[in-house]
Design brief:
CATH topology of the largest domain: Jelly Rolls
Number of domains: 4
Radius of gyration: 28 Å
Helix content: under 10%
Number of strands: 40
Shape: globular
Distance between the termini: 24 Å
Protein backbone atom coordinates (compact mmCIF):
# COMPACT_ATOMS: atom_id res chain seq x y z
CA UNK A 1 0.00 0.00 0.00
CA UNK A 2 1.29 3.38 -0.90
CA UNK A 3 2.07 5.75 1.95
CA UNK A 4 0.09 8.96 2.41
CA UNK A 5 3.21 11.01 1.63
CA UNK A 6 3.61 9.22 -1.71
CA UNK A 7 0.01 9.97 -2.65
CA UNK A 8 0.44 13.63 -1.65
CA UNK A 9 3.60 13.85 -3.73
CA UNK A 10 1.81 12.34 -6.72
CA UNK A 11 -1.08 14.79 -6.35
CA UNK A 12 1.35 17.72 -6.09
CA UNK A 13 3.23 16.55 -9.20
CA UNK A 14 0.01 16.19 -11.18
CA UNK A 15 -1.02 19.66 -10.05
CA UNK A 16 2.29 21.03 -11.28
CA UNK A 17 1.87 19.28 -14.62
CA UNK A 18 -1.60 20.71 -15.07
CA UNK A 19 -0.67 24.22 -13.90
CA UNK A 20 -0.89 27.33 -16.02
CA UNK A 21 2.22 28.36 -17.98
CA UNK A 22 4.86 29.92 -15.73
CA UNK A 23 5.33 33.66 -15.45
CA UNK A 24 8.50 35.21 -14.03
CA UNK A 25 8.04 38.71 -12.62
CA UNK A 26 11.43 39.65 -11.17
CA UNK A 27 14.77 38.36 -9.90
CA UNK A 28 16.78 39.48 -6.88
CA UNK A 29 19.61 40.16 -7.05
CA UNK A 30 19.41 41.14 -10.71
CA UNK A 31 23.17 41.11 -11.22
CA UNK A 32 26.23 39.16 -10.21
CA UNK A 33 29.99 38.93 -10.57
CA UNK A 34 31.01 36.62 -13.46
CA UNK A 35 32.54 33.35 -12.32
CA UNK A 36 31.24 33.65 -8.75
CA UNK A 37 28.09 31.65 -7.83
CA UNK A 38 25.39 33.52 -5.96
CA UNK A 39 21.89 32.72 -4.73
CA UNK A 40 18.97 34.53 -6.34
CA UNK A 41 15.20 34.54 -5.87
CA UNK A 42 12.82 34.59 -8.83
CA UNK A 43 9.33 35.84 -8.03
CA UNK A 44 6.35 34.90 -10.20
CA UNK A 45 3.41 32.56 -10.69
CA UNK A 46 3.08 29.03 -12.02
CA UNK A 47 6.64 28.24 -10.88
CA UNK A 48 5.65 25.09 -8.96
CA UNK A 49 7.71 22.12 -10.06
CA UNK A 50 10.38 24.29 -11.72
CA UNK A 51 13.35 22.08 -12.58
CA UNK A 52 15.74 24.20 -14.61
CA UNK A 53 16.85 27.67 -15.72
CA UNK A 54 17.36 28.01 -19.46
CA UNK A 55 19.70 30.69 -20.81
CA UNK A 56 19.14 32.09 -24.28
CA UNK A 57 22.57 31.34 -25.68
CA UNK A 58 25.79 31.04 -23.70
CA UNK A 59 26.56 33.17 -20.72
CA UNK A 60 25.41 31.43 -17.57
CA UNK A 61 23.99 28.46 -15.72
CA UNK A 62 21.79 27.90 -12.69
CA UNK A 63 20.69 25.16 -10.29
CA UNK A 64 17.22 25.06 -8.75
CA UNK A 65 17.26 24.97 -4.95
CA UNK A 66 13.59 25.16 -3.95
CA UNK A 67 10.20 26.67 -4.72
CA UNK A 68 8.46 28.39 -1.82
CA UNK A 69 5.17 30.30 -1.37
CA UNK A 70 5.58 34.04 -1.69
CA UNK A 71 5.30 35.91 1.63
CA UNK A 72 1.98 37.63 2.21
CA UNK A 73 1.74 41.07 0.62
CA UNK A 74 0.29 44.19 2.22
CA UNK A 75 -1.38 44.93 -1.12
CA UNK A 76 -4.86 43.32 -1.02
CA UNK A 77 -5.07 43.41 -4.86
CA UNK A 78 -1.96 41.31 -5.33
CA UNK A 79 -2.49 37.58 -5.77
CA UNK A 80 0.09 35.46 -3.92
CA UNK A 81 2.64 33.73 -6.11
CA UNK A 82 5.80 31.69 -5.67
CA UNK A 83 9.47 32.35 -5.05
CA UNK A 84 11.97 30.15 -6.87
CA UNK A 85 15.38 30.01 -5.19
CA UNK A 86 18.27 29.24 -7.52
CA UNK A 87 22.05 29.21 -7.45
CA UNK A 88 23.10 31.36 -10.40
CA UNK A 89 26.51 31.52 -12.05
CA UNK A 90 27.48 33.83 -14.90
CA UNK A 91 30.32 32.73 -17.15
CA UNK A 92 33.60 34.56 -16.58
CA UNK A 93 33.43 35.81 -20.17
CA UNK A 94 29.85 37.10 -19.83
CA UNK A 95 29.38 40.70 -20.95
CA UNK A 96 26.11 42.55 -21.34
CA UNK A 97 22.73 41.50 -20.01
CA UNK A 98 21.88 37.80 -20.31
CA UNK A 99 18.33 36.57 -20.88
CA UNK A 100 17.03 33.46 -19.17
CA UNK A 101 13.73 31.63 -18.68
CA UNK A 102 12.29 29.24 -16.09
CA UNK A 103 11.38 25.70 -17.15
CA UNK A 104 8.50 23.98 -15.36
CA UNK A 105 6.11 21.10 -16.13
CA UNK A 106 3.76 23.84 -17.37
CA UNK A 107 6.27 25.00 -19.99
CA UNK A 108 8.76 27.81 -20.49
CA UNK A 109 8.34 31.23 -18.91
CA UNK A 110 8.83 34.71 -20.27
CA UNK A 111 12.39 36.06 -20.28
CA UNK A 112 14.11 37.91 -17.46
CA UNK A 113 17.56 39.48 -17.58
CA UNK A 114 20.59 39.10 -15.34
CA UNK A 115 23.48 41.57 -15.54
CA UNK A 116 27.18 40.87 -14.97
CA UNK A 117 29.33 43.34 -13.06
CA UNK A 118 33.06 43.10 -12.17
CA UNK A 119 32.77 44.74 -8.73
CA UNK A 120 32.47 42.79 -5.44
CA UNK A 121 28.82 42.33 -4.49
CA UNK A 122 27.25 43.55 -1.25
CA UNK A 123 23.71 42.84 -0.01
CA UNK A 124 21.58 45.58 1.49
CA UNK A 125 21.31 45.17 5.23
CA UNK A 126 18.00 44.42 6.92
CA UNK A 127 18.67 47.15 9.52
CA UNK A 128 16.91 50.48 8.84
CA UNK A 129 18.99 52.89 6.75
CA UNK A 130 16.40 55.33 5.46
CA UNK A 131 17.89 58.24 7.43
CA UNK A 132 21.31 59.83 6.79
CA UNK A 133 22.67 58.91 10.23
CA UNK A 134 21.57 55.29 9.69
CA UNK A 135 23.33 54.92 6.32
CA UNK A 136 24.73 51.47 5.56
CA UNK A 137 28.54 51.70 5.21
CA UNK A 138 30.21 50.69 1.97
CA UNK A 139 33.59 49.49 3.29
CA UNK A 140 35.36 49.19 -0.06
CA UNK A 141 35.07 50.78 -3.48
CA UNK A 142 34.29 49.78 -6.17
CA UNK A 143 31.20 47.85 -5.10
CA UNK A 144 27.83 46.65 -6.40
CA UNK A 145 25.07 46.92 -3.78
CA UNK A 146 22.04 44.66 -4.18
CA UNK A 147 18.97 46.34 -2.67
CA UNK A 148 15.23 46.80 -2.94
CA UNK A 149 12.65 49.47 -2.20
CA UNK A 150 10.44 47.27 -0.07
CA UNK A 151 7.94 49.86 1.20
CA UNK A 152 6.04 52.75 -0.35
CA UNK A 153 8.10 55.94 -0.03
CA UNK A 154 11.23 54.11 1.13
CA UNK A 155 14.70 55.56 0.50
CA UNK A 156 18.04 53.82 1.09
CA UNK A 157 21.19 55.64 2.29
CA UNK A 158 24.73 54.28 1.91
CA UNK A 159 27.88 55.92 3.29
CA UNK A 160 31.38 55.85 1.77
CA UNK A 161 34.67 57.70 1.91
CA UNK A 162 36.09 59.69 -1.00
CA UNK A 163 39.51 61.30 -1.45
CA UNK A 164 40.03 64.93 -2.43
CA UNK A 165 39.70 65.26 -6.21
CA UNK A 166 38.36 61.71 -6.58
CA UNK A 167 35.69 61.16 -9.25
CA UNK A 168 33.15 58.39 -8.75
CA UNK A 169 30.38 57.10 -10.98
CA UNK A 170 27.08 55.87 -9.51
CA UNK A 171 24.83 53.81 -11.80
CA UNK A 172 21.70 51.76 -11.16
CA UNK A 173 20.47 48.53 -12.69
CA UNK A 174 16.84 48.04 -11.73
CA UNK A 175 13.59 46.27 -12.42
CA UNK A 176 11.27 47.93 -14.92
CA UNK A 177 8.88 48.91 -12.13
CA UNK A 178 11.31 50.97 -10.05
CA UNK A 179 12.60 53.95 -12.13
CA UNK A 180 15.34 54.87 -9.62
CA UNK A 181 16.87 58.23 -8.72
CA UNK A 182 20.27 58.96 -7.13
CA UNK A 183 21.51 61.77 -4.88
CA UNK A 184 24.86 62.56 -3.20
CA UNK A 185 24.84 64.05 0.31
CA UNK A 186 27.27 65.20 2.98
CA UNK A 187 26.50 65.30 6.71
CA UNK A 188 27.10 68.96 7.45
CA UNK A 189 24.77 69.59 10.38
CA UNK A 190 23.25 72.96 11.22
CA UNK A 191 22.37 75.08 14.23
CA UNK A 192 18.80 73.74 14.04
CA UNK A 193 19.61 70.14 13.12
CA UNK A 194 23.00 68.54 13.91
CA UNK A 195 22.02 65.57 11.68
CA UNK A 196 21.28 67.67 8.62
CA UNK A 197 22.53 66.26 5.30
CA UNK A 198 23.31 68.73 2.51
CA UNK A 199 22.58 67.54 -1.01
CA UNK A 200 25.53 67.95 -3.38
CA UNK A 201 24.15 66.36 -6.57
CA UNK A 202 21.05 64.63 -7.85
CA UNK A 203 20.03 62.79 -10.99
CA UNK A 204 17.08 61.02 -12.49
CA UNK A 205 16.65 60.50 -16.20
CA UNK A 206 15.35 63.88 -17.39
CA UNK A 207 12.41 62.47 -19.34
CA UNK A 208 10.41 59.29 -19.71
CA UNK A 209 9.98 58.18 -23.32
CA UNK A 210 9.71 54.83 -25.13
CA UNK A 211 13.11 53.21 -25.79
CA UNK A 212 14.90 55.54 -23.36
CA UNK A 213 16.54 54.00 -20.31
CA UNK A 214 15.10 54.90 -16.89
CA UNK A 215 18.35 54.02 -15.13
CA UNK A 216 20.04 56.78 -13.12
CA UNK A 217 23.69 57.65 -13.79
CA UNK A 218 25.59 60.22 -11.71
CA UNK A 219 29.25 61.12 -12.00
CA UNK A 220 30.64 63.38 -9.27
CA UNK A 221 34.07 64.81 -8.40
CA UNK A 222 34.61 65.37 -4.67
CA UNK A 223 36.45 68.56 -3.74
CA UNK A 224 37.46 67.47 -0.25
CA UNK A 225 38.27 64.18 1.41
CA UNK A 226 35.65 62.89 3.80
CA UNK A 227 32.59 60.73 4.33
CA UNK A 228 29.65 61.11 1.97
CA UNK A 229 26.24 59.52 1.39
CA UNK A 230 24.47 58.21 -1.68
CA UNK A 231 20.68 57.85 -1.63
CA UNK A 232 18.59 55.52 -3.81
CA UNK A 233 14.87 56.14 -4.21
CA UNK A 234 12.04 55.25 -6.56
CA UNK A 235 10.93 58.18 -8.69
CA UNK A 236 7.21 57.39 -8.29
CA UNK A 237 7.50 56.56 -4.58
CA UNK A 238 6.29 53.00 -5.14
CA UNK A 239 7.58 50.09 -3.11
CA UNK A 240 7.13 46.38 -2.62
CA UNK A 241 7.70 43.19 -4.57
CA UNK A 242 9.61 43.67 -7.79
CA UNK A 243 11.24 47.00 -6.81
CA UNK A 244 14.84 45.75 -6.85
CA UNK A 245 18.02 47.53 -7.85
CA UNK A 246 21.79 47.17 -8.11
CA UNK A 247 23.81 50.26 -7.21
CA UNK A 248 27.26 50.21 -8.83
CA UNK A 249 29.83 52.61 -7.37
CA UNK A 250 33.02 52.76 -9.41
CA UNK A 251 35.98 54.96 -10.19
CA UNK A 252 35.72 56.34 -13.69
CA UNK A 253 32.94 55.45 -16.10
CA UNK A 254 30.71 52.37 -16.08
CA UNK A 255 29.78 50.57 -19.26
CA UNK A 256 26.16 50.41 -20.30
CA UNK A 257 24.56 46.98 -19.84
CA UNK A 258 22.92 46.01 -23.11
CA UNK A 259 21.25 42.68 -23.66
CA UNK A 260 23.31 40.33 -25.80
CA UNK A 261 20.95 39.56 -28.66
CA UNK A 262 20.72 40.36 -32.38
CA UNK A 263 19.25 43.73 -33.24
CA UNK A 264 15.76 43.40 -34.72
CA UNK A 265 14.82 45.45 -37.76
CA UNK A 266 13.18 48.72 -36.78
CA UNK A 267 12.25 51.49 -39.17
CA UNK A 268 10.17 54.21 -37.56
CA UNK A 269 12.18 54.98 -34.43
CA UNK A 270 14.48 57.91 -33.73
CA UNK A 271 17.28 55.66 -32.47
CA UNK A 272 17.44 53.12 -35.30
CA UNK A 273 20.84 53.38 -37.01
CA UNK A 274 21.24 55.04 -40.41
CA UNK A 275 24.43 54.17 -42.25
CA UNK A 276 25.97 54.73 -45.66
CA UNK A 277 24.74 51.23 -46.53
CA UNK A 278 21.11 52.17 -45.95
CA UNK A 279 19.93 51.78 -49.55
CA UNK A 280 21.37 48.28 -49.78
CA UNK A 281 19.73 47.38 -46.45
CA UNK A 282 16.33 48.58 -47.69
CA UNK A 283 16.51 46.89 -51.09
CA UNK A 284 17.67 43.65 -49.39
CA UNK A 285 14.17 43.51 -47.92
CA UNK A 286 12.76 43.45 -51.46
CA UNK A 287 15.01 41.71 -54.02
CA UNK A 288 18.70 40.67 -53.92
CA UNK A 289 19.29 42.08 -57.40
CA UNK A 290 18.17 45.54 -56.27
CA UNK A 291 20.37 45.33 -53.17
CA UNK A 292 23.39 44.32 -55.26
CA UNK A 293 22.94 47.38 -57.48
CA UNK A 294 22.64 49.84 -54.56
CA UNK A 295 25.58 52.19 -54.07
CA UNK A 296 26.92 53.61 -50.79
CA UNK A 297 25.17 56.78 -49.64
CA UNK A 298 27.48 59.84 -49.54
CA UNK A 299 27.37 62.16 -46.53
CA UNK A 300 27.54 65.95 -46.23
CA UNK A 301 28.01 68.08 -43.14
CA UNK A 302 25.23 70.66 -42.88
CA UNK A 303 27.30 72.57 -40.30
CA UNK A 304 30.17 73.09 -42.77
CA UNK A 305 28.78 76.45 -43.90
CA UNK A 306 27.28 79.20 -41.73
CA UNK A 307 23.50 79.40 -41.84
CA UNK A 308 23.10 82.84 -40.25
CA UNK A 309 24.74 84.63 -43.18
CA UNK A 310 22.86 84.97 -46.48
CA UNK A 311 24.71 82.18 -48.29
CA UNK A 312 23.32 79.56 -50.62
CA UNK A 313 22.80 76.16 -48.94
CA UNK A 314 24.98 73.43 -50.38
CA UNK A 315 23.37 71.32 -53.08
CA UNK A 316 23.03 67.55 -52.70
CA UNK A 317 22.13 64.66 -54.98
CA UNK A 318 19.71 61.94 -53.88
CA UNK A 319 20.45 59.83 -51.91
CA UNK A 320 22.59 61.77 -49.40
CA UNK A 321 23.10 61.53 -45.64
CA UNK A 322 22.94 64.99 -44.11
CA UNK A 323 24.71 65.20 -40.75
CA UNK A 324 24.93 68.06 -38.27
CA UNK A 325 23.87 69.34 -34.87
CA UNK A 326 21.50 71.92 -33.45
CA UNK A 327 24.43 73.70 -31.83
CA UNK A 328 22.58 76.69 -30.41
CA UNK A 329 18.97 77.78 -29.84
CA UNK A 330 17.33 78.75 -33.11
CA UNK A 331 20.02 77.06 -35.22
CA UNK A 332 18.77 76.10 -38.70
CA UNK A 333 20.75 73.92 -41.12
CA UNK A 334 19.87 73.89 -44.80
CA UNK A 335 20.59 71.86 -47.93
CA UNK A 336 18.97 72.04 -51.36
CA UNK A 337 18.14 69.42 -53.96
CA UNK A 338 16.32 69.08 -57.28
CA UNK A 339 13.52 66.63 -58.13
CA UNK A 340 11.43 65.77 -61.16
CA UNK A 341 7.66 65.80 -61.38
CA UNK A 342 6.15 62.77 -59.65
CA UNK A 343 9.42 61.83 -57.93
CA UNK A 344 8.84 60.04 -54.63
CA UNK A 345 11.30 60.64 -51.80
CA UNK A 346 11.64 59.65 -48.16
CA UNK A 347 13.25 61.50 -45.26
CA UNK A 348 14.59 59.43 -42.38
CA UNK A 349 15.95 60.95 -39.17
CA UNK A 350 18.27 59.42 -36.55
CA UNK A 351 19.19 61.12 -33.25
CA UNK A 352 22.45 59.36 -32.24
CA UNK A 353 23.11 61.04 -28.86
CA UNK A 354 20.20 62.89 -27.36
CA UNK A 355 16.85 61.79 -28.68
CA UNK A 356 13.19 62.83 -28.53
CA UNK A 357 12.08 64.71 -26.50
CA UNK A 358 15.52 66.17 -25.61
CA UNK A 359 15.94 66.97 -29.28
CA UNK A 360 12.92 67.35 -31.57
CA UNK A 361 14.12 67.45 -35.18
CA UNK A 362 11.75 69.52 -37.29
CA UNK A 363 12.16 69.04 -41.05
CA UNK A 364 10.64 71.53 -43.47
CA UNK A 365 10.89 71.37 -47.26
CA UNK A 366 10.19 74.61 -49.18
CA UNK A 367 10.28 75.46 -52.85
CA UNK A 368 12.30 78.20 -54.54
CA UNK A 369 9.57 80.74 -53.69
CA UNK A 370 9.63 79.86 -49.99
CA UNK A 371 6.32 77.99 -50.12
CA UNK A 372 6.17 74.96 -47.84
CA UNK A 373 5.83 71.63 -49.63
CA UNK A 374 5.78 69.29 -46.62
CA UNK A 375 7.18 68.70 -43.13
CA UNK A 376 7.67 65.79 -40.76
CA UNK A 377 4.76 66.98 -38.59
CA UNK A 378 1.74 64.69 -38.70
CA UNK A 379 -1.48 66.60 -38.01
CA UNK A 380 -4.77 64.86 -37.24
CA UNK A 381 -8.19 65.75 -35.86
CA UNK A 382 -9.91 63.24 -33.58
CA UNK A 383 -13.64 62.50 -33.34
CA UNK A 384 -14.04 65.27 -30.74
CA UNK A 385 -12.60 67.87 -33.07
CA UNK A 386 -9.34 68.20 -31.14
CA UNK A 387 -6.21 68.67 -33.23
CA UNK A 388 -3.07 66.62 -32.60
CA UNK A 389 0.41 67.24 -34.01
CA UNK A 390 3.47 65.01 -33.70
CA UNK A 391 6.90 64.94 -35.33
CA UNK A 392 7.92 61.67 -36.99
CA UNK A 393 11.32 60.10 -37.72
CA UNK A 394 10.24 59.10 -41.23
CA UNK A 395 8.27 61.04 -43.85
CA UNK A 396 7.30 60.16 -47.43
CA UNK A 397 6.30 62.58 -50.17
CA UNK A 398 5.47 62.54 -53.89
CA UNK A 399 6.23 65.82 -55.68
CA UNK A 400 3.34 67.02 -57.89
CA UNK A 401 5.81 69.21 -59.80
CA UNK A 402 9.55 69.29 -60.30
CA UNK A 403 12.01 71.98 -59.35
CA UNK A 404 14.57 72.90 -56.72
CA UNK A 405 13.70 72.60 -53.04
CA UNK A 406 15.39 73.45 -49.74
CA UNK A 407 15.39 71.22 -46.68
CA UNK A 408 15.53 73.05 -43.35
CA UNK A 409 16.57 71.15 -40.22
CA UNK A 410 16.00 72.65 -36.77
CA UNK A 411 14.69 71.86 -33.30
CA UNK A 412 10.96 72.42 -33.09
CA UNK A 413 11.28 74.43 -29.86
CA UNK A 414 13.96 76.91 -31.06
CA UNK A 415 14.85 77.20 -27.35
CA UNK A 416 17.56 74.55 -27.02
CA UNK A 417 20.84 73.75 -28.68
CA UNK A 418 24.22 72.15 -27.95
CA UNK A 419 26.78 70.02 -29.75
CA UNK A 420 25.24 66.78 -28.46
CA UNK A 421 21.97 67.53 -30.26
CA UNK A 422 23.28 65.69 -33.31
CA UNK A 423 21.17 64.33 -36.13
CA UNK A 424 21.40 62.31 -39.30
CA UNK A 425 18.85 62.98 -42.06
CA UNK A 426 18.80 60.62 -45.02
CA UNK A 427 17.28 62.23 -48.12
CA UNK A 428 16.63 59.44 -50.61
CA UNK A 429 14.35 58.03 -53.28
CA UNK A 430 11.65 55.74 -51.93
CA UNK A 431 12.48 52.02 -51.93
CA UNK A 432 9.38 49.78 -51.76
CA UNK A 433 10.29 47.01 -49.34
CA UNK A 434 9.13 44.72 -46.54
CA UNK A 435 9.34 46.72 -43.31
CA UNK A 436 9.06 45.56 -39.72
CA UNK A 437 7.67 42.10 -39.01
CA UNK A 438 5.93 41.80 -35.63
CA UNK A 439 5.25 38.46 -33.94
CA UNK A 440 2.48 38.18 -31.34
CA UNK A 441 4.20 35.77 -28.93
CA UNK A 442 7.44 35.61 -26.96
CA UNK A 443 7.30 31.89 -26.16
CA UNK A 444 4.97 28.95 -26.86
CA UNK A 445 3.76 26.19 -24.53
CA UNK A 446 1.73 23.67 -26.56
CA UNK A 447 -0.48 20.85 -25.37
CA UNK A 448 -0.46 17.68 -27.47
CA UNK A 449 -3.51 17.61 -29.75
CA UNK A 450 -4.39 21.31 -29.16
CA UNK A 451 -3.63 23.98 -31.74
CA UNK A 452 -2.38 27.47 -30.94
CA UNK A 453 -2.13 30.45 -33.27
CA UNK A 454 0.69 32.91 -33.88
CA UNK A 455 -0.18 36.25 -35.50
CA UNK A 456 2.45 37.89 -37.69
CA UNK A 457 2.03 41.47 -38.94
CA UNK A 458 4.18 42.63 -41.88
CA UNK A 459 4.63 46.29 -42.73
CA UNK A 460 4.64 47.16 -46.43
CA UNK A 461 6.81 50.24 -46.70
CA UNK A 462 6.83 52.92 -49.39
CA UNK A 463 4.30 51.33 -51.70
CA UNK A 464 5.55 47.75 -51.49
CA UNK A 465 2.86 45.74 -53.31
CA UNK A 466 4.39 42.26 -53.31
CA UNK A 467 3.74 39.27 -51.10
CA UNK A 468 5.45 38.14 -47.91
CA UNK A 469 5.87 34.42 -47.26
CA UNK A 470 5.99 33.57 -43.55
CA UNK A 471 7.17 30.21 -42.23
CA UNK A 472 8.35 28.61 -39.01
CA UNK A 473 11.03 25.96 -38.51
CA UNK A 474 12.85 24.22 -35.68
CA UNK A 475 9.71 22.98 -33.92
CA UNK A 476 9.58 20.06 -31.47
CA UNK A 477 8.83 16.54 -32.67
CA UNK A 478 5.22 16.08 -33.74
CA UNK A 479 4.47 19.82 -34.14
CA UNK A 480 3.59 21.44 -37.47
CA UNK A 481 3.27 25.10 -38.40
CA UNK A 482 0.53 25.60 -41.01
CA UNK A 483 -1.05 28.76 -42.48
CA UNK A 484 -4.62 29.58 -41.51
CA UNK A 485 -7.30 32.20 -42.04
CA UNK A 486 -9.40 34.02 -39.45
CA UNK A 487 -12.11 36.64 -39.46
CA UNK A 488 -10.89 40.16 -38.72
CA UNK A 489 -12.96 41.87 -36.02
CA UNK A 490 -15.08 44.83 -37.06
CA UNK A 491 -13.26 48.14 -36.59
CA UNK A 492 -15.02 51.32 -35.50
CA UNK A 493 -15.14 54.20 -37.98
CA UNK A 494 -11.88 56.14 -38.07
CA UNK A 495 -11.77 59.90 -37.49
CA UNK A 496 -10.10 62.06 -40.16
CA UNK A 497 -6.50 60.80 -40.28
CA UNK A 498 -4.88 63.69 -42.16
CA UNK A 499 -2.12 62.87 -44.64
CA UNK A 500 -1.61 59.47 -43.10
CA UNK A 501 0.19 57.99 -46.11
CA UNK A 502 3.18 60.25 -45.45
CA UNK A 503 3.78 59.02 -41.91
CA UNK A 504 2.43 55.49 -41.55
CA UNK A 505 2.73 52.24 -43.41
CA UNK A 506 0.21 49.70 -44.64
CA UNK A 507 0.24 46.37 -42.85
CA UNK A 508 -0.99 42.85 -43.46
CA UNK A 509 -1.60 40.10 -40.90
CA UNK A 510 -0.77 36.45 -41.41
CA UNK A 511 -1.76 33.60 -39.09
CA UNK A 512 0.28 30.47 -38.42
CA UNK A 513 -1.30 27.65 -36.45
CA UNK A 514 0.99 25.45 -34.39
CA UNK A 515 -0.63 22.03 -34.56
CA UNK A 516 0.87 19.37 -32.25
CA UNK A 517 -0.12 15.78 -32.96
CA UNK A 518 -2.06 14.02 -30.23
CA UNK A 519 0.98 11.76 -29.80
CA UNK A 520 3.55 14.59 -29.70
CA UNK A 521 5.93 13.81 -26.81
CA UNK A 522 6.31 16.29 -23.97
CA UNK A 523 9.63 18.14 -23.94
CA UNK A 524 11.92 18.94 -21.02
CA UNK A 525 13.85 21.72 -22.77
CA UNK A 526 12.67 24.23 -25.39
CA UNK A 527 13.16 23.87 -29.08
CA UNK A 528 14.08 27.09 -30.90
CA UNK A 529 11.28 27.93 -33.31
CA UNK A 530 12.54 30.27 -36.03
CA UNK A 531 10.11 32.50 -37.88
CA UNK A 532 11.16 33.61 -41.36
CA UNK A 533 9.75 36.21 -43.74
CA UNK A 534 10.47 36.22 -47.47
CA UNK A 535 9.37 39.02 -49.83
CA UNK A 536 8.05 38.22 -53.28
CA UNK A 537 8.09 40.94 -55.97
CA UNK A 538 6.36 40.24 -59.29
CA UNK A 539 6.89 36.54 -58.83
CA UNK A 540 10.57 36.88 -57.96
CA UNK A 541 11.60 35.49 -54.59
CA UNK A 542 13.58 37.67 -52.22
CA UNK A 543 15.88 36.61 -49.40
CA UNK A 544 14.48 34.65 -46.46
CA UNK A 545 15.00 36.81 -43.39
CA UNK A 546 15.07 35.46 -39.84
CA UNK A 547 12.50 37.53 -37.95
CA UNK A 548 12.43 36.02 -34.49
CA UNK A 549 13.52 33.03 -32.45
CA UNK A 550 10.91 31.68 -30.02
CA UNK A 551 11.37 28.92 -27.40
CA UNK A 552 8.71 26.23 -27.91
CA UNK A 553 7.77 23.40 -25.56
CA UNK A 554 5.19 20.62 -25.63
CA UNK A 555 3.65 20.11 -22.19
CA UNK A 556 1.32 17.53 -20.74
CA UNK A 557 -2.26 18.80 -20.62
CA UNK A 558 -4.87 18.40 -17.93
CA UNK A 559 -5.93 14.82 -17.27
Amino acid sequence: MRSISAWLAAIAWCGALCAAPPKADSIFPASGKPGAPFEASIRGSGLEGAYSIWFEGAGGSAKVIAVEPEPASSDPKRKPGSVLRVEMRLDESASGARSFRVLTPGGVSNALRIYPHPEPSLLETAAPHDLPRQAQPLPLLPVAVQGRIAEVGEVDFYSFRAAAGEELTFRTISSEALDPGLAIYQLTGSWFDPDRATRLAFTDEPVSYPNLSTEAVLRYKFDAAGEYLVRVNGFWGHGGAGQEYTLRVTRGDVERQDEAKPREWTERKWTRPLSGDRMRELWARALPSLAAAAKPVPAVDADAEPTTAPVEPQKIQLPTMVTGAIERPGDIDRVRFAVKEGERIALEVETPDKTVPLINPYLRVIDSEGVEAFTNIYSTVNSNGNASKQIHPKTQYSFPRGGEFTLEIRDITASYGDKRMRYKVLVRPQAPHMGEVKVSVDCLNLEAGKAQKVSIVTDQEEGFDGYVIVSMEGLPEGVRAVPATEVDPDSPPQPPMGKRERFTTKSQKATLVLAPDASAPATRTPAIGRIYAQPVVKGELGTRILVKEIPVMVVKGAA
